[in-house]
Amino acid sequence: MPALPPVIAVVGPTASGKTGLSIALAEEFDAEIISMDSALVYRGMDVGTAKPTMDERAGVAHHLIDVIDPTEAYSAARFREDTLRLVEQIRTRGKLPLIVGGTMLYFKALRDGLDDLPRADPELREQIEAEAAARGWPALHGELAQLDPITAQRLQPGDSQRIGRALEVIRLTGRPMSDSLGREPEPLPFELLSLSLEPAERAALHERIALRFDTMLSSGLIDELRGLRERFALNPGLPSMRCVGYRQAWEFLDGRIGRMELREQGIIATRQLAKRQLTWLRSMPGLTRLDCLRADLHAQARSATAKFLKETS
User: pTM of the entire structure?
Assistant: First the structure.
């Protein structure tokens, strides 16, 4: 059997240094970057997502950034489809594909394949959203518990996105979502080296998160969201507006919290996001784990990448 082509992934929690490391690796190994970030897909959401600058994107080709408007939705299924296509295109240009991000659901979909679930049905989803507006998500969670108790047990009554999706699957297929889960992983058409940036000290990562959020505020996060609300028909239930930072800024613009509360809640929410990301990563086998706080992080990542490329050549 011919050897599979090499692909690198740089994953890790927010504020772990993925952007800087990936650009350095891309420059050294002649790579193009595929973003694996569910927030970077949105046009106009630049400050609150810490989107790579135009200079950074001019120096290294980036993909899956500014793909859709904030009123639209993007899925793990679409990410996997887009990424497999982009990997092939990048390889035909003689470049190394470099997948970078912290959206763990996308990473799992890429590595393990997708469950046998139907595509989203916008009309049915609107119907479910209308029911939730009238009855409340806890009531729909109760309905789900009757139809698919296995899925309902792992969801909180206020988890609107996942409850809605589970009910959508039942109404489209006539069977519980849990029946479709747990398939054997689909093999990737490439060899993947996954560099996982994980801090040895959580407190140091928390300091980075606070600095990062303060930088977003000083760089115009509130004004950015104000402009987005003027340009698009947004509401706080959209996936784009549930992103950390934008959710808190929305509350501030609506006058429900003050600026200090915005900062405090934004930092806390970002810490919680990082904790969830690390929980995902630490449960995943087959990762090359690097301490993102070490001064020689870039050297370690370069060494691991060079060794992997030599082994797969």
Answer: 0.83
Q: In whole angstroms, how far apart are CA 77 and each of 60, 67, 155, 179?
A: 26, 15, 21, 18
Task: At 174, give phi and psi (nearest 5°).
Answer: 80, 10
Tell me the sheet residues that pair with 34. 63, 99
Amino acid identity at 71:
T
75 phi-psi bin (left φ>0, alpha ψ -120 to 50, beta other) = beta
Read off the pLDDT of residues 23-63 as tens digits, 9 standing for 90 and up. 999 999 999 999 999 999 999 999 999 999 999 999 999 99
DSSP-assigned letters across all residues of 262-305 = HHHHHHHHHHHHHHHHHHHHHT-SS-EEE-TTSTTHHHHHHHHH
Query: What does each C-alpha distance from 45 to 32, 207, 221 come to in angstroms?
Result: 22, 24, 9
Looking at the chain, which runs of residues are DSSP E strands? 6-11, 31-35, 62-63, 96-101, 191-197, 288-290
Structural tokens at position 234: 């947004």
